[in-house]
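Colleagues,

For the teaching module next term, I've prepared a clean inverse folding example: a structure given as C-alpha coordinates, and then the sequence designed for it. I'd like students to try predicting residues themselves before seeing the answer, so please don't circulate the second half yet.
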Protein backbone atom coordinates (compact mmCIF):
# COMPACT_ATOMS: atom_id res chain seq x y z
CA UNK A 1 0.00 0.00 0.00
CA UNK A 2 1.08 3.57 -0.66
CA UNK A 3 -0.66 6.28 1.30
CA UNK A 4 -0.29 9.83 0.07
CA UNK A 5 -1.55 13.08 1.48
CA UNK A 6 -0.89 15.87 -0.97
CA UNK A 7 -1.45 19.62 -0.80
CA UNK A 8 -3.44 20.89 -3.76
CA UNK A 9 -4.72 24.43 -4.13
CA UNK A 10 -4.38 25.26 -0.43
CA UNK A 11 -6.29 22.16 0.73
CA UNK A 12 -5.28 18.58 1.43
CA UNK A 13 -6.55 15.72 -0.68
CA UNK A 14 -6.20 12.22 0.76
CA UNK A 15 -6.37 9.02 -1.26
CA UNK A 16 -5.18 5.40 -1.31
CA UNK A 17 -3.79 3.36 -4.18
CA UNK A 18 -1.80 0.18 -4.86
CA UNK A 19 -3.85 -1.49 -2.15
CA UNK A 20 -2.15 -4.41 -0.38
CA UNK A 21 -1.97 -5.43 3.25
CA UNK A 22 -3.82 -3.23 5.72
CA UNK A 23 -1.88 -0.94 8.02
CA UNK A 24 -3.05 -2.89 11.06
CA UNK A 25 -1.85 -6.15 9.53
CA UNK A 26 1.47 -4.51 8.70
CA UNK A 27 1.92 -3.43 12.29
CA UNK A 28 1.51 -7.07 13.41
CA UNK A 29 3.91 -8.52 10.83
CA UNK A 30 7.59 -8.28 10.01
CA UNK A 31 6.95 -6.01 7.02
CA UNK A 32 8.88 -2.77 7.33
CA UNK A 33 6.74 0.38 7.45
CA UNK A 34 8.52 3.49 6.13
CA UNK A 35 7.07 7.02 5.90
CA UNK A 36 8.59 9.93 3.99
CA UNK A 37 8.05 13.69 3.92
CA UNK A 38 8.82 15.21 0.52
CA UNK A 39 8.50 19.01 0.81
CA UNK A 40 8.11 19.64 -2.90
CA UNK A 41 6.84 18.14 -6.13
CA UNK A 42 7.58 14.45 -6.71
CA UNK A 43 7.71 15.06 -10.48
CA UNK A 44 10.14 18.01 -10.40
CA UNK A 45 12.78 16.13 -12.41
CA UNK A 46 15.31 16.78 -9.65
CA UNK A 47 15.82 16.58 -5.91
CA UNK A 48 12.25 15.84 -4.82
CA UNK A 49 11.65 13.27 -7.53
CA UNK A 50 14.88 11.54 -6.52
CA UNK A 51 13.57 11.28 -2.96
CA UNK A 52 10.34 9.71 -4.21
CA UNK A 53 12.36 7.28 -6.33
CA UNK A 54 14.27 6.30 -3.20
CA UNK A 55 10.98 5.58 -1.44
CA UNK A 56 9.80 3.42 -4.34
CA UNK A 57 13.12 1.54 -4.17
CA UNK A 58 12.45 0.89 -0.47
CA UNK A 59 9.12 -0.66 -1.42
CA UNK A 60 10.46 -2.67 -4.33
CA UNK A 61 13.78 -3.84 -2.89
CA UNK A 62 12.84 -4.30 0.75
CA UNK A 63 9.17 -5.22 0.38
CA UNK A 64 8.21 -2.37 2.70
CA UNK A 65 4.88 -0.66 3.15
CA UNK A 66 5.39 3.01 2.29
CA UNK A 67 3.59 6.23 3.13
CA UNK A 68 4.38 9.75 2.04
CA UNK A 69 3.26 13.34 2.17
CA UNK A 70 4.41 15.75 -0.54
CA UNK A 71 3.65 19.28 -1.66
CA UNK A 72 4.53 20.89 1.68
CA UNK A 73 6.20 24.32 1.56
CA UNK A 74 9.58 24.63 3.31
CA UNK A 75 8.21 26.40 6.39
CA UNK A 76 8.86 24.87 9.78
CA UNK A 77 5.30 24.83 11.20
CA UNK A 78 3.96 23.03 8.13
CA UNK A 79 6.92 20.66 7.98
CA UNK A 80 6.43 19.80 11.66
CA UNK A 81 2.70 19.19 11.13
CA UNK A 82 3.38 16.83 8.23
CA UNK A 83 6.04 14.92 10.17
CA UNK A 84 3.68 14.57 13.15
CA UNK A 85 0.97 13.18 10.90
CA UNK A 86 3.34 10.60 9.46
CA UNK A 87 4.73 9.64 12.88
CA UNK A 88 1.28 9.38 14.47
CA UNK A 89 0.50 6.41 12.20
CA UNK A 90 3.28 4.47 13.94
CA UNK A 91 5.74 3.59 11.15
CA UNK A 92 9.10 1.99 11.87
CA UNK A 93 10.94 4.97 10.35
CA UNK A 94 10.11 8.50 9.22
CA UNK A 95 12.41 9.92 6.54
CA UNK A 96 12.45 13.67 5.94
CA UNK A 97 13.81 14.30 2.45
CA UNK A 98 15.91 17.46 2.37
CA UNK A 99 17.99 19.55 4.72
CA UNK A 100 15.18 22.10 5.00
CA UNK A 101 13.49 19.54 7.27
CA UNK A 102 16.32 19.47 9.83
CA UNK A 103 14.85 21.73 12.52
CA UNK A 104 11.36 20.25 12.15
CA UNK A 105 12.73 16.71 12.37
CA UNK A 106 14.64 17.52 15.57
CA UNK A 107 11.45 18.81 17.15
CA UNK A 108 9.13 16.01 16.05
CA UNK A 109 11.60 13.18 16.65
CA UNK A 110 11.73 14.22 20.31
CA UNK A 111 7.94 13.83 20.49
CA UNK A 112 8.03 10.24 19.12
CA UNK A 113 11.03 8.60 20.82
CA UNK A 114 9.97 5.08 19.80
CA UNK A 115 10.24 5.87 16.06
CA UNK A 116 13.47 6.14 14.06
CA UNK A 117 13.84 9.46 12.21
CA UNK A 118 16.22 10.23 9.34
CA UNK A 119 16.95 13.48 7.49
CA UNK A 120 18.30 13.10 3.96
CA UNK A 121 20.96 15.74 3.24
CA UNK A 122 20.78 16.84 6.85
CA UNK A 123 23.34 17.32 9.57
CA UNK A 124 21.18 16.76 12.65
CA UNK A 125 21.22 13.92 15.16
CA UNK A 126 19.43 12.86 18.32
CA UNK A 127 18.56 9.84 20.48
CA UNK A 128 16.29 8.53 17.71
CA UNK A 129 17.50 10.73 14.84
CA UNK A 130 20.27 10.38 12.27
CA UNK A 131 21.18 12.04 8.97
CA UNK A 132 22.24 10.43 5.70
CA UNK A 133 24.06 12.74 3.32
CA UNK A 134 25.20 12.37 -0.26
CA UNK A 135 28.16 14.73 -0.63
CA UNK A 136 26.77 16.96 -3.39
CA UNK A 137 29.68 19.32 -2.74
CA UNK A 138 32.17 16.78 -4.13
CA UNK A 139 30.51 16.53 -7.55
CA UNK A 140 29.80 20.28 -7.40
CA UNK A 141 33.53 20.90 -6.81
CA UNK A 142 34.35 18.86 -9.92
CA UNK A 143 31.65 20.78 -11.83
CA UNK A 144 33.30 24.05 -10.80
CA UNK A 145 36.67 22.70 -11.89
CA UNK A 146 35.13 21.77 -15.26
CA UNK A 147 33.60 25.23 -15.62
CA UNK A 148 36.98 26.80 -14.94
CA UNK A 149 38.56 24.71 -17.70
CA UNK A 150 35.74 25.25 -20.20
CA UNK A 151 34.68 28.90 -19.81
CA UNK A 152 35.64 31.15 -22.70
CA UNK A 153 34.52 34.43 -21.16
CA UNK A 154 36.08 33.84 -17.74
CA UNK A 155 32.68 34.46 -16.11
CA UNK A 156 30.75 31.59 -14.52
CA UNK A 157 27.30 31.74 -12.89
CA UNK A 158 25.43 29.87 -10.18
CA UNK A 159 21.69 29.95 -9.41
CA UNK A 160 19.85 28.33 -6.52
CA UNK A 161 16.53 28.99 -4.84
CA UNK A 162 16.22 28.72 -1.07
CA UNK A 163 19.21 29.17 1.20
CA UNK A 164 19.54 25.77 2.90
CA UNK A 165 22.70 24.01 4.07
CA UNK A 166 23.01 21.51 1.17
CA UNK A 167 22.59 24.33 -1.33
CA UNK A 168 25.15 26.50 0.43
CA UNK A 169 27.62 23.61 0.56
CA UNK A 170 27.05 22.86 -3.13
CA UNK A 171 27.61 26.50 -4.04
CA UNK A 172 30.77 26.60 -1.93
CA UNK A 173 32.08 23.38 -3.47
CA UNK A 174 31.43 24.66 -7.00
CA UNK A 175 33.17 27.96 -6.30
CA UNK A 176 36.26 26.33 -4.83
CA UNK A 177 36.51 23.89 -7.75
CA UNK A 178 36.28 26.85 -10.12
CA UNK A 179 39.04 28.66 -8.23
CA UNK A 180 41.23 25.54 -8.33
CA UNK A 181 41.36 25.42 -12.13
CA UNK A 182 40.74 29.09 -12.97
CA UNK A 183 41.55 31.42 -10.06
CA UNK A 184 41.05 34.49 -12.25
CA UNK A 185 37.46 33.61 -13.12
CA UNK A 186 34.61 35.91 -12.07
CA UNK A 187 31.87 34.13 -10.11
CA UNK A 188 28.22 35.26 -10.19
CA UNK A 189 26.07 33.60 -7.54
CA UNK A 190 22.52 34.07 -6.32
CA UNK A 191 19.90 32.39 -4.16
CA UNK A 192 16.83 33.76 -5.89
CA UNK A 193 14.34 32.59 -3.24
CA UNK A 194 12.33 29.90 -5.05
CA UNK A 195 13.31 26.44 -6.32
CA UNK A 196 10.30 26.06 -8.63
CA UNK A 197 9.65 29.44 -10.29
CA UNK A 198 10.55 29.19 -13.97
CA UNK A 199 9.88 32.82 -14.76
CA UNK A 200 12.26 33.86 -11.97
CA UNK A 201 15.03 31.45 -13.00
CA UNK A 202 14.73 32.58 -16.63
CA UNK A 203 15.11 36.19 -15.54
CA UNK A 204 18.11 35.50 -13.29
CA UNK A 205 19.89 33.31 -15.86
CA UNK A 206 19.38 35.97 -18.53
CA UNK A 207 20.84 38.59 -16.21
CA UNK A 208 23.91 36.48 -15.42
CA UNK A 209 24.48 35.85 -19.13
CA UNK A 210 24.15 39.58 -19.80
CA UNK A 211 26.87 40.07 -17.17
CA UNK A 212 29.20 37.77 -19.13
CA UNK A 213 28.51 34.26 -17.85
CA UNK A 214 28.87 31.58 -20.53
CA UNK A 215 28.40 28.65 -18.12
CA UNK A 216 25.78 28.55 -15.33
CA UNK A 217 25.45 25.93 -12.60
CA UNK A 218 21.88 25.55 -11.31
CA UNK A 219 20.75 23.88 -8.09
CA UNK A 220 17.01 24.13 -8.67
CA UNK A 221 14.00 21.81 -8.71
CA UNK A 222 11.18 22.28 -11.22
CA UNK A 223 12.38 25.87 -11.73
CA UNK A 224 15.41 24.60 -13.65
CA UNK A 225 13.51 24.70 -16.94
CA UNK A 226 13.30 28.49 -16.96
CA UNK A 227 17.07 28.77 -16.61
CA UNK A 228 17.54 26.10 -19.28
CA UNK A 229 15.37 28.05 -21.71
CA UNK A 230 17.33 31.27 -21.09
CA UNK A 231 20.67 29.49 -21.47
CA UNK A 232 19.51 27.92 -24.74
CA UNK A 233 18.22 31.26 -26.06
CA UNK A 234 21.52 33.03 -25.38
CA UNK A 235 23.86 30.26 -26.52
CA UNK A 236 25.45 29.64 -23.10
CA UNK A 237 26.01 26.24 -21.44
CA UNK A 238 24.33 24.73 -18.42
CA UNK A 239 25.60 22.54 -15.57
CA UNK A 240 22.86 20.63 -13.77
CA UNK A 241 22.81 18.72 -10.50
CA UNK A 242 21.23 15.71 -8.77
CA UNK A 243 20.92 13.58 -11.94
CA UNK A 244 22.53 13.35 -15.38
CA UNK A 245 21.08 16.22 -17.39
CA UNK A 246 23.67 15.77 -20.17
CA UNK A 247 21.82 12.59 -21.19
CA UNK A 248 18.65 14.65 -21.75
CA UNK A 249 20.07 17.66 -23.55
CA UNK A 250 23.81 17.52 -24.31
CA UNK A 251 23.68 20.60 -26.53
CA UNK A 252 22.72 22.78 -23.54
CA UNK A 253 24.09 20.82 -20.58
CA UNK A 254 27.86 20.61 -20.70
CA UNK A 255 28.02 18.75 -17.37
CA UNK A 256 25.95 17.59 -14.42
CA UNK A 257 27.05 17.32 -10.79
CA UNK A 258 25.32 14.06 -9.96
CA UNK A 259 24.28 13.50 -6.37
CA UNK A 260 21.86 10.61 -6.38
CA UNK A 261 19.77 11.55 -3.37
CA UNK A 262 17.53 8.53 -3.86
CA UNK A 263 20.29 6.45 -2.27
CA UNK A 264 20.32 7.79 1.34
CA UNK A 265 16.70 6.82 2.07
CA UNK A 266 17.24 3.30 0.74
CA UNK A 267 20.46 2.98 2.74
CA UNK A 268 18.71 4.13 5.92
CA UNK A 269 15.81 1.71 5.46
CA UNK A 270 18.19 -1.12 4.60
CA UNK A 271 20.20 -0.37 7.74
CA UNK A 272 17.00 -0.49 9.79
CA UNK A 273 15.94 -3.79 8.20
CA UNK A 274 19.35 -5.31 8.94
CA UNK A 275 19.47 -3.92 12.51
CA UNK A 276 22.43 -1.71 11.54
CA UNK A 277 20.71 1.66 11.84
CA UNK A 278 22.21 3.94 14.48
CA UNK A 279 20.79 7.14 15.94
CA UNK A 280 23.03 10.08 16.69
CA UNK A 281 25.21 9.76 13.58
CA UNK A 282 25.63 11.39 10.17
CA UNK A 283 26.33 8.87 7.39
CA UNK A 284 28.17 10.44 4.42
CA UNK A 285 28.42 9.07 0.86
CA UNK A 286 30.90 10.62 -1.60
CA UNK A 287 32.82 10.15 -4.85
CA UNK A 288 34.07 6.76 -3.69
CA UNK A 289 30.55 5.54 -4.60
CA UNK A 290 30.07 6.60 -8.25
CA UNK A 291 26.46 5.43 -8.22
CA UNK A 292 25.81 8.18 -5.70
CA UNK A 293 28.27 10.96 -6.56
CA UNK A 294 30.03 11.71 -9.84
CA UNK A 295 30.40 14.31 -12.58
CA UNK A 296 28.77 13.60 -15.94
CA UNK A 297 30.13 15.36 -19.02
CA UNK A 298 28.58 16.06 -22.41
CA UNK A 299 30.10 14.28 -25.45
CA UNK A 300 31.71 17.48 -26.77
CA UNK A 301 33.92 18.02 -23.69
CA UNK A 302 37.55 17.67 -24.88
CA UNK A 303 39.51 14.60 -23.83
CA UNK A 304 42.19 16.73 -22.16
CA UNK A 305 39.57 18.25 -19.86
CA UNK A 306 38.12 14.82 -19.08
CA UNK A 307 41.55 13.49 -18.15
CA UNK A 308 42.31 16.44 -15.90
CA UNK A 309 38.97 16.03 -14.11
CA UNK A 310 39.61 12.31 -13.60
CA UNK A 311 42.91 13.15 -11.90
CA UNK A 312 41.16 15.70 -9.66
CA UNK A 313 38.44 13.17 -8.78
CA UNK A 314 41.03 10.59 -7.78
CA UNK A 315 42.87 13.14 -5.66
CA UNK A 316 39.66 14.00 -3.80
CA UNK A 317 38.98 10.32 -3.10
CA UNK A 318 42.57 9.91 -1.87
CA UNK A 319 42.15 12.93 0.47
CA UNK A 320 44.84 14.82 -1.42
CA UNK A 321 42.37 17.63 -2.17
CA UNK A 322 40.10 18.98 0.54
CA UNK A 323 36.71 19.98 -0.84
CA UNK A 324 36.04 23.32 0.80
CA UNK A 325 32.42 24.47 0.99
CA UNK A 326 33.29 28.00 2.13
CA UNK A 327 32.15 30.98 0.08
CA UNK A 328 32.21 34.43 1.62
CA UNK A 329 32.26 36.57 -1.51
CA UNK A 330 29.70 38.86 -3.04
CA UNK A 331 26.35 37.74 -4.39
CA UNK A 332 24.94 38.69 -7.76
CA UNK A 333 22.55 41.62 -7.86
CA UNK A 334 20.64 42.44 -11.03
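(Answer key — instructors only)
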Amino acid sequence: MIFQRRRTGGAFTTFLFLVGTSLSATAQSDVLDIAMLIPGQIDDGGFMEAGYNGLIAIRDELGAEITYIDGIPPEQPELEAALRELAAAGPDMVIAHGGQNSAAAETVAAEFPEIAFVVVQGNVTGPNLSSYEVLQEESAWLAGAAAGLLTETGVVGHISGIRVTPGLKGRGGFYNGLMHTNPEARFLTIFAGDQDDNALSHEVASAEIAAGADIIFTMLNSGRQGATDAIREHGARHIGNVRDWTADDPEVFVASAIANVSIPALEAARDLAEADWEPGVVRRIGLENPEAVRLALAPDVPDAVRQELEVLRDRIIADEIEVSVVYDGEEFAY
